Amino acid sequence: MENGKKTVEIRWHGRGGQGAKTACLLLADAAFSSGKHVQGFPEYGPERMGAPITAYNRISDTENLVHSNIYHPDYVVVVDETLLHSVDVTAGLSEDGAIIINSTREPEELRKQLKGYKGRVCAVDAEKISLETLGKNFPNTPMLAATVKVSNVIDNKKFLHDMEGSFRHKFATKPNVIDGNMKALQMSMEQVKVG
After folding, report:
1. Cα–Cα distance, 153 to 29 (Å, whole number)
2. How many CB atoms lie within 10 A of CB 2?
3. How far is residue 131 CA from its own chain's centroid?
4. Which of 65, 108, 123, 138, CA to CA, is 20 to 30 A from 184?
5. pLDDT for 20-50, tens place per residue?
6. Three-state DSSP state, 73
């Protein structure tokens, strides 16, 4: 784990239908495959397309007995940039961690909207990446990869290897989906900007 810390906590913000919950659960699966103890769970509010949703990950080297929402995350992932206007995404966020935002804008420009947050601000154009690699706007796959890259919660090569195995299992009859998802993961890890 980063900085010798035993548990890394991640909070995801997205809208219903964007795959934030799915990305959270995929991260839990990948971390588990790496030998970590994991939790991945959503917080349910109104379950409708477009409604704000929150999901959480706890990843540690040892068993984690805490079973509550995460109020002081190390990392926050914002799958939909419009949430910056309506949700306090930096609430409780550690300044030793980072916020990772799906945006076309530069991290320094995004920082102006983050209520004085002084930690790292990261940006990746997940929409562009998913359109190029998958042909549709599925921002969760690129955001998952950006989160792994920024947080170092899992070895990057092991993560890509495990995700390829997972995609091959899920999409055995759709090799183009496997290739597209793998390209999306790799592009996101290369293109995420850290400010």
Report:
1. 13
2. 13
3. 18
4. 108
5. 999 999 999 999 999 999 999 998 766 667 7
6. coil
